[in-house]
Specification:
123 residues
Length: 123
């Protein structure tokens, strides 16, 4: 994958994640599978903590502990996973209501952005 294709894939994943909502985490001692999946997904495409933090803040359920920045920091620093299977990625996005990832191995960043503008408007 070229750098331009990697950037296109990252943009497509980011778009799909931004369409998600309702991510819940009850706090220490509860199941954190979804949060760890999100971290692994973000890291697998080279996102930074700041990008993860913004996504998490946007898609967290209002009753989730993830509305607190300190919880997001602890989750990010406490997990080192950076790989995820395509099936797990797609299940996560589907479960939280995000649009499917729209890209192909030969897509460029410009191709992906034009396709998103076509389909969803210029936002």
């Amino acid at each position: 994958m070229t750098a331009e294709q990697a950037e296109a894939y990252k943009a497509a994943v980011l778009h799909s994640l931004n369409g998600c909502s309702g991510l819940h985490y009850a706090g220490k001692g509860s199941s954190n599978h979804a949060v760890l999946t999100l971290i692994s997904l973000c890291r697998s495409v080279g996102m930074t903590f700041e990008e993860f933090d913004a996504i998490c803040a946007r898609i967290a359920h209002p009753d989730s502990q993830l509305v607190h920045a300190a919880v997001r920091v602890a989750a990010w620093t406490g997990w080192s996973g950076d790989r995820i299977r395509r099936q797990t990625r797609d299940e996560f996005i589907r479960e939280y209501g995000g649009p499917p990832i729209q890209t192909s191995p030969t897509s460029t960043y410009i191709d992906v952005m034009n396709k998103m503008k076509e389909k969803y408007g210029s936002n």
